[in-house]
Amino acid sequence: MSMEAVVYKGPKEVAIESVDEPELEHPNDVLIDITTSAICGSDLHMYEGRTAAEPGIVFGHENMGIVTDVGEGVTTLEEGDRVVAPFNVACGFCTNCENGYTGFCTTVNPGFAGGAYGYVAMGPYTGGQAERLRIPYADFNALQLPPGDEHEDAFALLADIFPTGWHGTELANLRPGESIAIFGAGPVGLMAAYSAKIKGAAEIYSVDRVPSRLSLAEEYCDATPINFEEGDPVEQIRDAHGGEVDKGVDAVGYQAIDPETDPGSDAYDPARENPAIVLNQLIQVVRPTGQLGIPGLYVPSDPGAPDEMAAQGRLGIDFGKLFEKGQRLGTGQCNVKQYNARLRDLIIEGRADPSFVVSQRVDLEEAPQMYQAFDKREAGVTKVLLEP
Length: 388
Ligand SMILES: [Zn+2]
Ligand SMILES: [Zn+2]
Known about the structure:
By secondary structure, this protein is of the alpha/beta class. It has two domains: 2-160 and 335-387, Alpha-Beta Complex (Quinone Oxidoreductase, Chain A, domain 1), CATH 3.90.180; 165-331, Rossmann fold. It has 13 helices and 17 strands. The strands form four sheets. Strands 3, 4, 5, 8, 9, 16 and 17 form a seven-stranded mixed beta sheet that branches. Strand 11, helix 7 and strand 12 form a beta-alpha-beta unit. Helix 5 packs across helix 6 (187-198) and helix 6 runs parallel beside helix 7 (211-221). The chain is globular. The structure holds zinc ion (ZN) (2 copies).
């Protein structure tokens, strides 16, 4: 049996192709019919050829759908259940999983800590930008949702970006009444700003260069927009706040744009990148003994890096300044299971609705055009959901 899926063909190219349908491979697996999968900013790193991803990989780590097949060892799920899967594939019983660090499961991707669907180096798990998906260790990995189709957009964001944005504020140990600067107003940055609002931050500064994204941060997250193309964001925040902020989040990662470089004709020219710039801006703008949360992606190997050091994931971080200020930082991908059930309940009870970040819901077939538009950070393309 075959199905349609989004297949990586090479830098800046994906195609809809027929691939083998997933099958139950282990008694703890379930299969789902995908109802929604999402394109993620982290898919763009692969799409742009900025990772070791080989052509042929089926993308898609943000997946939800309806259970169709249940392995005989599965005890909590039945055919017809509506579920969303964390992007992390995790076993539930290794030391890291037992401690809640399901993003660093040592069972599911031997030789590495952490597994995910449809992602380079994250194990053999086929992505869900397709018609169907296999969920391993399904009792542990599938989060149950209320039946029906209510909150479909919001629930789809529980696979990654809502928990990941929340995680950024957790890594920064944000407490009610504190001020926070969030670099990046892409989907994860917006979710971090939204999480900061839910957690009762006194002031939220959202830093980006795309006006439509900054408007969302202002409108839905009560954030003060800071456009870094209009001047040094550190100075802008210090001026607006009257000094350094308590906490900071990096929702940009290694493909950060250096505002000191010339925009030229192509605003997204990799030559404008400086992979350490956001970290250094955070070190400057966060107060002494403040904390930095870094959910933005950094990689140990970047084939398209601006220089040789960065190609090996080595960055020019102002560590002396960090030490002088006694700051702490937290890094790493989100352990989605630490948060997703509680965030789901906030959605069900009407206390959170992260779906404001969704800009398009389109047929799976339109994925290639949507990758192109999202990659160009076209205005109005913030978060794209795919429907098979
Ligand atoms: Zn994602
Ligand atoms: Zn594990």
